[in-house]
Amino acid sequence: MLKLLLLLVFFAPGSFSQDDLDQAIEETTESLANMGGMNAEGETVPARQDQASQAQVLEDTPKEPVEIKESFFSGVMNNTAKQFIGQFLAENPFSKVPKKELKTLLLARLSGQPLGNALENNPKFLDMSVDIIRDKRALPNLMGLVNKPEKIKMYGYIVIGVFGMVFILNLMNSKGNIFKRILKKMTIGLIAFTANIGAAFFIFKDELSPTLDIIFKYYHF
């Protein structure tokens, strides 16, 4: 489940094979079906639970999936992935799952993995992660970037521009003793990192705000 979310949120299909993506989607769809989510055709199905529990998980009328725009990102996805994201953008299915059940599911899925151990040993981090997954806006807003390729492109240009400036400044950083050169290089790197983070927040403010609000609720920097 989390594997698919990370794939879709951070749009790194090149790091995974199509079989990996298909398997992650299939596993997530099956989990949602068990909780009263979607089947492989993207249709809402009854939960495999008693009627009282089903009433807490499902709504009577599911929302129509959001149409995924044609872009570079949608071009590397198959129809199942597009359908999944479209349904997720319309309504976060995990928002209907009780927090306790989602904790159990998350720990079970990540059992034995470094992230799973981190979640199990840090209840505060686990609560924050579950709140982000269940939030009606956090993950859908992040996944919604697939329909905003112009923002991704703009940020890409900024990152390339910052990288170019760093490269030029480091080439010019040849005067002075080695201590001064190292200090200048570290300063350039820090400024570049700050510029990239600032640009990301400025461009993706609407998409990041719900997630950051939850993070700041648990961790006060």
What do you see in this structure?
The structure is a single chain. The protein is an all-alpha fold and 221 residues long. 68% of the residues lie in helices and 0% in strands. The chain is built from twelve helices and no strands. It starts with a helix and ends with a helix. The model is unreliable at 1-16 and 36-49 (pLDDT under 50).
What is the β-strand count?
0
Structural class: mainly alpha
Query: Which descriptor suits the 3D outline?
Result: globular
Topology pattern, helix = H, strand = E: HHHHHHHHHHHH
* Alpha-carbon distance between the two ends: 29 Å
Give the low-pLDDT segments: 1-16, 36-49
Q: What is the number of helices?
A: 12
Fraction of residues in helices? Answer: 55-70%
Radius of gyration: 21 Å
What is the beta-strand fraction?
under 5%
How confident is the prediction overall: mean pLDDT?
A: 78
Q: Biggest sheet: strands, sense, closure?
A: none
List the defining traits of the structure above.
221 residues; mainly alpha; 12 helices
Ordered list of secondary-structure elements with their pairings:
Blueprint: H1 2-10, H2 18-35, H3 51-57, H4 72-75, H5 79-90, H6 99-109, H7 114-121, H8 123-134, H9 138-143, H10 149-172, H11 178-203, H12 205-218
